[in-house]
Amino acid sequence: MSFSWAGGRRPLSSENPSRQADEPGQYGLFTISEPHDVDGSADLDVVAIHGLNGHFQRTWTDPATDFNWLRGALPTAIPGARVLSFSYNSILQFSKSTSNLNVFADQLLESLLVERHPPASRDRPLVFICHSLGGLVFKQALLRAYERERYRPIATRTVGVLFFGTPHRGSQFASVATVLGSIIKAVSLGANTNTQLSKDLEPDSRVLEQVSDGFVDKAKNLRIFTYYETQKLSFLKSLVVDQQSARLGLAGELAVPIDGDHRSICRYPDAADKRLKIVLGHILELREASTTISQPVRSARAAPEMNPIEEMDFLRSLNTSNPELHKARNPAPVEGTCAWILQHPTYRTWYTSEISSLLWLSADPGCGKSVLASFLVDHFASMPGEERPRVCYFFFKSDHLEQRDGIHALQAVLHQLLQQRPGIVALASSHLGKAGPKSTAALWNTFAHCAELPDGGEGGAISARDTICVLDGLDECEQDTKQALTFLLSKYYSENRPRASPGPRLKLLATSRPDIPFKLAFDNRKRDSKPGGAGNRVPASMIRLRGEDEIDAISNDISMVIRSDIFGLECQDFPPDILSAIEIQLVAKADRTFLWVTLVLRLLKERVEEGASRRDIDEILQSRDIDFVYAGLLRTRLKNPRVRRLLGMILATPRPMTVEELSVALAVRNPAGKLSGSKDFNDVEYDVVFPHENHLKGLCGHFIRIIRGKVYLVHETAREFLLRIKEAPADGAPDTERIFRLSGCRRELVETCLTYLHCLASGAPTARTLPFLHFAAKEWPPIYNDLTGREKNSPKRFTGLCHPSHPGFSTWMPLALHNIKQTGLSGDDLQYHCLCMLGLILPDSRDIGRRIQQEAQSATQLGPMSSNPGAMGNHYFPVELDSHGAVRLDFKAVGWRARLQGSQVAAPAAVTIRGFAAATVRTASLTEGSDDEDDKGYILL
After folding, report:
1. What is the dihedral of CA 335, 337, 338, 339, to 10 degrees?
2. What is the pLDDT of residues 84-119, one digit of tens each?
3. What is the distance between the alpha carbons of residues 813 and 777, in angstroms, rounded to a whole number?
4. Residues in domain Nephrocystin 3-like N-terminal (predicted)?
5. Measured by CB atoms within 10 angstroms of the end CB, which terminus of the chain is less buried, N or C?
6. Measured between alpha carbons, how far is 231 from 523 in angstroms, rounded to an integer?
7. Phi then psi dihedrals of residue 843, to 5 deg
8. Burial annotation 262-279 (CB, 10 A radius, 16+ → b, else e)
9. Helix (H, G, I), strand (E, B) or coil at 226
């Protein structure tokens, strides 16, 4: 069989597999099979990408039978598919290449562009098949395709991907970098290596983090099939990529275990292999899905058409949050737990109902509602093809501005639905109408309408694939949108009744605490249990499952969690008899509260690591008060000001801060009393502690959780605890004020941001202090605006930063105001404009400026005609900067030296430029002919 390579020469013969590929002509895109249908025209391009030390043919070939399924089975199963295989220098041993992931991604994109150059080929849907690290190459290529207009058609026509053993993230046992390190060790013998590729895959490489973070957003438009290994390689002690590492955890992903090790999961002895039939069935699903792209369903033919760019823009307007990351905040359930709900009669009634219906799962705080909701999302997403519903979800959390917003939630679930039904994007846009993606009612109505639209099948067939929407933690939604969303859900499901013809149903699962508003809205049992004949009974459209009543099921799950964690303590050589007694006491005291058990176990682990007596352990087990457990987790930590500052930042931040952001923020010294703050970024860097994560965990222990590089409190009740605890009384003295006041935490965080931004006067951030720049620039104005009255920081701390003459203005202001442009405004007017845009003053509130100016004149006893030019309102004066970044008047530029000869400017005083640039004037002796530095007046903005 002959092969073609896009842009290169023919490959070496595949009959010589031992020969190492290290010549440019052996790399590129090879055609494995042309279409086998009647007219020979392709309606789908399938592209295979091998992994580390792989080969474009051998990776997919069974070594015993020499059967390559890309050539021997795929074309027969999908006659209209053209099968391609990408070859790149992933060889570590014996290779002189310095190529990296970016190079491989660009090679793949350019080769695809050449291969798909004919007009008939450009719109052909694309499906990718990736083994191991070939998945990283694909993910990087997709990111670059979205970034560059040249490759954009490749990105928009990619409909799905099959990942075989690709490490997307770490597991509970290893980070993703550690997994990749294991792969490298498995294939590298330590000879000459592709050094650049090795560096890209090193544990401390930022490349992996950037690829993973960027792909999650772009993957929302794809259908993803993930296959993970179940057997170990003979020479390794563990799986190369376990299930947790192989799964992305996205709504549209289907994860399937494949019998085989890391190599054999993509190699099959013949076309009859049952594993291969599953894989081919999934590729066929992608082909069928590709035929509906940008095509309205039969019931929506009247919907206006949208071109791909318009569709992308509309989807982007809905893509305002990261539900996958929100879901990942919940710990993974211990194996065997949560399964009880699948057989629960109430759940079964809801799941099998013939109408769209709502299931409200209520339970008290700490009973595992979020873990159970996460389990159900994974369960629905992993169901077999024909049974699998479309799954949409959102996890509310009150400690995150984005995660507590009901509008963000509805945008997220609508976006997830349209990812799985790309053919109705235009219809959804039309239905949303002028209300746009900011209206709670319009978003819900559009989501419900699209969920119940029938699918248009081939030959006029209509399929009824249900949509299941999971909304976890409704009680943590902010008040306004919570009320609106609760009303919309109650109204929709109370009016929903059986229809004459079957069609897709919208099943919604909501979890919350058993609060009264939800009882009034969702508890439909009385309305659906009126007396009457069984034949006339109307199915309940709103059903309640009281988690607080499921004593046996929850107690059994808690026992499994305790047993799992106790096993971990056994590995630390703690006496088994004591551990057995601990297990018995924990089960007895748990009282159906996962949170208490989880926190106590963490506290026990911490004490055991330090060394603990039976008395120490009994003290921990004696308390049933969750606040006591929290106090135990913090123990003496709150005596450390750094701990209190860290927890205050977590309480005050409008969004979760990253490990790097918090580490730099902690290194910023705020001015306090006579103590000066950080002067420059070298000063800040000097106080940054490494390793970041170790330092943060060392400060707060198990009171915080670090998930995908972001820092959270261990639970919502921990936030409530911090905001109500008081200092312990000393010597009989009464309790002092709360340790944490939210307003004080916010003020402190604003001060930290401002101190950091003032360092810009002395130069750009260093590489190790740069991670905090975006947060410091963008987040402090809304935090400041949430403060009231005397709680606010002094305007003197930020007015100068907003003046274009400040050295850091051009660095931080574009981050805070994305739409700021060069204007013809004077410096003072631009300063005023920025203050208004940031919400720091009200537009047209010139009286504020006049009041500040009057205060300045009163303080200096200088009138408008004073020789102090800074006191003259509505006059402009040339300014320049000194070596400290201070803005000062340049008297030389206006020739005032002669007029002001012999004048002595009064003692340091507050003055203003146009009323907004609070300043201090240095005493200046203005003498004719003097060139000294003291010949100039300073205005410190």
Report:
1. 80
2. 999 998 765 334 443 477 889 999 999 999 888 776
3. 7
4. 336-513
5. N
6. 48
7. -55, 145
8. bbbbbbbbeeebebbeeb
9. strand
C-alpha span between 410 and 52 (Å, rounded): 41
**Dist CA 461 CA 137 (whole Å):** 38
Instruction: Decide: helix, strand or coil at residue 375.
Output: helix
Is-contact 878 889, C-beta < 8 A? yes
Domains of the chain (ranges, CATH numbers): 27-290 (3.40.50.1820), 302-528+538-548 (3.40.50.300), 552-624 (no CATH), 647-776 (no CATH), 827-939 (no CATH)
In this prediction, residue 916 carries a pLDDT of: 38
**Hey, which bits of 419-475 come out as E strands?**
455-456, 462-463, 467-472
Q: Is 146 helix (H, G, I), strand (E, B) or coil?
A: helix
Task: Estimate the crossing angle of helix 641-652 against helix 659-667, to 10 degrees.
Answer: 130
C-alpha gyration radius of the chain? 32
Residue 498: the pLDDT is 54
Give Cβ neighbours of residue 522 (< 8 Å, ≥ 6 apart).
Answer: 358, 360, 486, 489, 490, 510, 542, 544
pLDDT in tens, 150-184: 888 899 889 999 999 998 865 444 455 555 656 66
> Which residue, 145, 71, 55, is CA-closest to 107?
145
How distant, in Å, are the alpha carbons of 518, 570, 608 from that of 358?
12, 44, 45
Q: How far apart are CA 53 and CA 62, in angstroms?
A: 16
Q: Hey, which bits of 111-174 come out as E strands?
A: 126-131, 158-164
Query: Do the bridges between strand 467-472 and strand 506-512 make them parallel or antiparallel, or are there none, so unpaired?
Result: parallel
